[in-house]
């Protein structure tokens, strides 16, 4: 059975949210991104816990994809541009961690 990885996520768009407009997407994922190389105050190794994959879809189109590793800092933040589709739909952010847990955030795009 697949487990869900719930994360605090901040997703915002900079620019006009209207059909065919280019916007800057700002995505912040609240995750510890523990490398497995660090030791705690008692000398015990802290277990590895990182996000491996992040994908962003707008409608059916993949607009951003990243494969992360141990070099990524905690609470990774991404900025990228995308062109919004002619018809309003959903922006879907999905992620998978190194233990196979997955999560998803779905935000409707509302054109005004």
Q: Please report the distance between the alpha carbons of the first and last residues.
A: 41 Å
The best one-word shape is elongated
Main sheet: strand order: 4-3-6-7
Low-confidence stretches: none
C-alpha-based Rg, rounded: 16 Å
What is the overall number of helices?
0
Helix/strand order: EEEEEEE
Helix content: under 10%
Chain-averaged pLDDT: 94
The largest β sheet comes out as: 4 strands, antiparallel
Beta-strand fraction estimate: over 45%
Give the number of DSSP strands.
7
Structural class: mainly beta
Can you summarize this structure?
By secondary structure, the protein is mainly β.
Provide structural commentary:
The chain is mostly beta strands and 112 residues long. The mean pLDDT is 94. A four-stranded antiparallel beta sheet has the order 4-3-6-7, with no helix packed on it. A three-stranded antiparallel beta sheet has the order 1-2-5, with no helix packed on it. It contains no helices and seven strands. A hairpin with a 4-residue loop joins strand 6 and strand 7.
């Amino acid at each position: 059975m697949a487990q869900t990885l719930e994360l605090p996520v901040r997703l915002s768009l900079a620019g006009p949210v209207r059909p065919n407009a280019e916007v800057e997407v700002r995505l912040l994922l609240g995750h510890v991104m523990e490398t497995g190389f660090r030791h705690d105050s008692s000398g015990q190794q802290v277990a590895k816990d990182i996000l491996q994959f992040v994908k962003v879809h707008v409608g059916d189109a993949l607009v951003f994809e990243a494969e992360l590793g141990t070099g990524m800092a905690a609470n990774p933040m991404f900025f990228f541009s995308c062109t919004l589709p002619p018809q309003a739909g959903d922006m879907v952010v999905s992620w998978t961690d190194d233990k196979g847990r997955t999560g998803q955030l779905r935000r409707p795009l509302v054109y005004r």
